[in-house]
Design goal:
4 helices; binds zinc ion; 6% strand; mainly alpha
Length: 236
C-alpha cells in the first residue's frame, strides 16, 4: 500500500475515534439532566404525599376544635337550663343542645374517616420515603459514574488529539488538506477500500482504469463517483 495511504488510514482511525468520543461527551449533559429530572420527580411525589398528609391533619384538628366549640355551647346551655324557670325556654335550649349533639356526631364521623385517611397517608409517606431515599442513592451513584465517564472521555480525547497531531505532521500538507476536507464533508470516512471494483464509501462501481490505478498502489486515487480516496481492499 502507498505509504501516505497507510498514514491516512491511521489518521482516519484517530479522527473517527475523536468524533465518536466528542459525540459521547455531548450526550453527558442530557444524561445528567435526565437523572436530575428523575430525582426531582421522586422528591415531588414524596412532597405531594406529605403535603396531603399535612392537609388531612389540619382538617382533622379543625374538626376537633369544631367539636370543642359545640361542647362548650352545650355546657353553657345546660347551665342556663338549670337557671331558667320557663318551660318553653328550657325546651328551646333542649332542642338546641340536641342540634349541637347531632352536629358533633356528624363531625366525629368525619373525624374518624380523616383519621383512617391519615393512617393510610402516614404509611404511604413512610414507604415513599424509603423509595425516594433509594432513588436518591442510585442517582447519586449514577451521577458519580457519569462524572467519571466524562473524565475518562476527556482524557482519551486529549490522548487521541495528541496522536492525531503527531500522525498529521507526517502527512504531506496538500494530501492532509484534501483528506481533512473529504473527512469533514463525508462525515464517515475519507479513505475507503475498493472491493471487487466497488467503492465501499458510495457503493458504486469504479472504472477499470481507476481500479487498475488503485491496485498498482503508486498514487493517491479517488473514487470518481464520491471523491473518497481509495485503497485496495484485497491487498491485506
Ligand atoms: Zn465512491
Amino acid at each position: 500500500m502507498h505509504a501516505d495511504l497507510e498514514q491516512l488510514l491511521v489518521l482516519q482511525d484517530r479522527e473517527q475515534k475523536i468524533r465518536q468520543i466528542q459525540n459521547e461527551i455531548k450526550t453527558l449533559p442530557l444524561e445528567r439532566k435526565n437523572l436530575e429530572g428523575q430525582l426531582a420527580s421522586s422528591q415531588a411525589h414524596l412532597e405531594g404525599l406529605k403535603q396531603k398528609a399535612r392537609e388531612v391533619e389540619v382538617h382533622r384538628k379543625k374538626l376537633e376544635l369544631d367539636v370543642g366549640t359545640r361542647e362548650a355551647s352545650i355546657a353553657k346551655l345546660r347551665t342556663q337550663q338549670y337557671e331558667t324557670r320557663k318551660n318553653d325556654e328550657f325546651q328551646a335550649m333542649g332542642n338546641e343542645i340536641k342540634r349541637y349533639e347531632d352536629e358533633i356526631r356528624k363531625i366525629e364521623d368525619e373525624e374518624l374517616e380523616l383519621m383512617d385517611q391519615s393512617d393510610h397517608l402516614k404509611a404511604d409517606v413512610s414507604t415513599e420515603e424509603k423509595k425516594a431515599a433509594q432513588v436518591a442513592d442510585s442517582i447519586k451513584r449514577q451521577m458519580g459514574d457519569l462524572q467519571a465517564k466524562g473524565k475518562t472521555l476527556e482524557e482519551r480525547l486529549t490522548g487521541l488529539t495528541k496522536e492525531r497531531e503527531e500522525i498529521a505532521a507526517k502527512v504531506d500538507e496538500d494530501l492532509l488538506d484534501r483528506f481533512e476536507r473529504l473527512f469533514a464533508s463525508k462525515g464517515d470516512a475519507a479513505v475507503v477500500a475498493l472491493e471487487h471494483d466497488i467503492c465501499t464509501g458510495c457503493h458504486m462501481k469504479v472504472t477499470t482504469a481507476t481500479s487498475v490505478h488503485v491496485r498498482a498502489g503508486k498514487e493517491i486515487v479517488s473514487c470518481e463517483q464520491c471523491g473518497r480516496i481509495l485503497y485496495d481492499g484485497a491487498a491485506g
